Amino acid sequence: MIRVIFTRFVDKTFPAKRSDDNMVLKGESSVEKGKRFELFCIMLIKRILAPLGVKVVHTGKPGDKGRDIICEVYGLTFVIQCKAWYKKNIDRSHVDELETVIRRGNNDLDTVVKKGRFSFGILVGVDICKISDEAIDRARTSECDIGVVTYHDMYSSLLDLSKCQIKCTSHYFCSINKAGSGG
């Protein structure tokens, strides 16, 4: 039910078009289009994770070092890179860049989210036809947890990656407790 409501909201707010001309508002530059897409993704994230107390920081600007959006929820800090592209493809190199960003973290930023390495990253595009198979394969084989999705699938990707990280973290703490108790 929530997924259906979310999808309807997305379709009305930022309808998917297959032409770059349909995405750009009259007189809007590609930079302005990108910023509008980032703000749209922030709105979606807040709608998805608001009940969980998410902190969201919009860092998208020149020199953001690949960190358009940084979020923290339940102790997980993650980064989102937005690509509002209809003419260019998201490819393997973009996943490689995001992997570097995840490892580098956000120690150099003064934000409301905790500092350190990111728990995972999401690369968000606008059209599934513009996400290469190589990008998806590279995300699957990455040492970091990376999702490559369209904004339509961001809801399920955020939930899946969050659950995976929480499960891994709880398994880690269970292992520590067993080792510490001699068990």
From TrEMBL:
Coiled coil: none annotated. Transmembrane segments: none annotated. GO terms for biological process: DNA restriction-modification system; double-strand break repair. One of its GO terms (molecular function) is endonuclease activity. Residues 44-119 form the Restriction endonuclease type IV Mrr domain. It holds the Pfam family Mrr_cat. Gene3D superfamilies: 3.40.1350.10. This is Restriction endonuclease type IV Mrr domain-containing protein. The lineage of its organism: Eukaryota, Fungi, Fungi incertae sedis, Mucoromycota, Glomeromycotina.
